[in-house]
């Protein structure tokens, strides 16, 4: 243990902690820009400098180990002057563009300016200068990720997140030195021309607005406000938990009802559940798996509901495309049914002339879902995709007091019915567990497999495996780097019959469109909430979804029928 004082407050902590940990334990706030608890520290922003008695110079708290007996000061004129000088250096080069910046209100640089009343030190752009003077720093080529390097504070977190042990993509790296140091792509190509898989992990750690999700929320608000079309929205399993964090509720708070009420207040006519699509995916993908096992072809089957993983296979290993399940993701299945399924004609008043389909939006924890929605072969199933963060922006823009909303909101039927198996899609291992719960039913066997598959759960293990009666051994890759490792083994083709891959560590609950969080245990907290929803669900296996049963009893006839393949399956291109 080490015992030290921070601003005169005594704290006792385990060996190995930093002065930043010690300050936080003492309740002392230290501002940071380049620090993220899940990534290695850089100490480049110099915002967290502290004085340690006996040391000649101030030390960066994020990388300095706390020693027994340290006397630490964070609050003195010299330190304030030094952070102000560092901030001035950043602000001199940062566009004064907050009013139209996508992260306005959730920007750490803006917080720093506000906390310290440094507004006057932010240079004003000349009147009428709407565009940045810098040229070539704005990149809007990706359907999922926007870059504006004029806003970059060179913290390095994006490059770390992209090359993190869980991702290992290395699409972004640092070039230049000193004031020209910037995170760029290989050969400075536009993002759309790189190997970027749109996972959005870089947007999740960017402390400012230099890397953001391609914004769709302005168009969505515009369409809602126009009241011209019937507007339907579906919400993904991981979003109903994480949205709570945007409004100061405790991480892990389940906000399904509040979220539904907020969406209705925003003007959506129908609020549906992506979990319905997830249950349907299990019926289609499970049946597809059984038919591949029977025909001994294209095994192991790769799950395909994570679009960043699909992107990775297309870009890096196109020879493996045949392994991807052709079943669309829950988002796309749900969108196809909302637009063109048997219920589409029942969704309310006649559509305005020229808009004979409902306007369909999804709320996803994922940036790559924007990319998925515009893939060839998806037949415009979805008009716009909002991340969890964008939905929070819309709610704030309309002045809806989210935390005060009643929790009683419920989904519209029939595309709002779901089981716990659909809900666990939001956590790494959830798709495979949902398959495990359903497979013996799909085979027609009379025994029931266990509901809970602990060996497939967890946000910390890279590769998880289990044996499923009736089909064989399956694997779950938690993060795209784990999939790369598995595919480097000599035995993956023979060892597994099915492999789930989620590109983001933790699965969708760790997706690049989720709220930004500096809580090192955020993934576990979200995960526990997701499994709690499943545990409390009256039905926990996808084939028990009565609306799905009804769909097969009428229009779709059976999983993988020609009608189902037409609406619910897709293809991939190298
Ligand atoms: Fe996911 Fe999925 S679980 S991919 O992680 O299969 O994004 O939450 O919506 O489509 O249902 C994401 C989450 C999500 C799909 C489902
Ligand atoms: Fe890297 Fe993912 Fe960001 Fe693309 S979206 S640059 S792959 S972290």
Keywords:
Alpha-Beta Plaits, alpha/beta, metal-binding, 4-stranded parallel sheet, 20 helices, 574 residues, [FeFe] hydrogenase, group A, 5-stranded mixed sheet, Rossmann fold, binds iron/sulfur cluster, 3 domains, Ubiquitin-like (UB roll)
Tell me about this structure:
The chain is an alpha/beta fold and 574 residues long. The protein has three domains: 2-87, Ubiquitin-like (UB roll); 94-125 and 133-213, Alpha-Beta Plaits, CATH 3.30.70.20; 218-568, Rossmann fold (3-Layer(aba) Sandwich). The chain has 20 helices and 18 strands. The chain has helices at 19-25, 77-93, 108-116, 157-163, 201-205, 217-226, 239-246, 256-266, 274-295, 307-316, 330-340, 368-373, 388-397, 420-423, 430-443, 480-488, 492-495, 522-535, 546-553, 562-568; strands at 2-6, 9-13, 49-52, 59-60, 71-73, 138-139, 145-148, 172-175, 182-185, 211-213, 231-235, 270-273, 301-302, 359-364, 384-387, 463-468, 472-478, 498-502. The strands form five sheets. Strands 2-1-5-3-4 form a five-stranded mixed β-sheet, sandwiched between helices. The longest helix has 22 residues, at 274-295. The protein is globular, with a radius of gyration of 25 Å. The N and C termini lie far apart (55 Å). Keywords: 4Fe-4S, Iron, Iron-sulfur, Metal-binding. Residues 78-117 form the 4Fe-4S His(Cys)3-ligated-type domain. This is [FeFe] hydrogenase, group A.
